[in-house]
Amino acid sequence: MAMEKGSAFLLKVGNGGAPLLFTTVAGLRTTQMTVNAETVVVTNQGSAGWRELLSGAGVRSVSLSGSGVFTGSVAEARLKANALAGQIDDYQVSFESGETVTGKFLITRLDYAGDFNGERTYTLALESSGAVVTA
Description:
The protein is mainly beta and 135 residues long. It has a single domain, classed as Factor Xa Inhibitor, CATH 4.10.410. 9% of the residues lie in helices and 48% in strands. It contains one helix and seven strands, in the order E-E-E-E-H-E-E-E. The model has no long low-confidence stretch (mean pLDDT 90).
């Protein structure tokens, strides 16, 4: 597997239209994606003392987070509106390799901060709602 640049890890928000188009959230300096999978344990007396898990069972989810410099872009305005409304929207993460991860997400946290002589920054966290697909 080839090494990829962190700057090529892009968070994008959908436009709500048909066809669905994605716009990169400007100003992100750090991004992170976590894939979560809860397990269902099916260990029984016949397991000889070893834990056994049920494949394909449990709850899967994806968490996204990022932080960056506020630029006032259209994508950032959509993020803010979604956060204030508690609105689930379409998001996509793209990687340098061309791979994408797409699904519906809810913004669970949106923080703004700024110093007197510095830039305004923000931090956000998103949680998946429904299936997340890779391409």
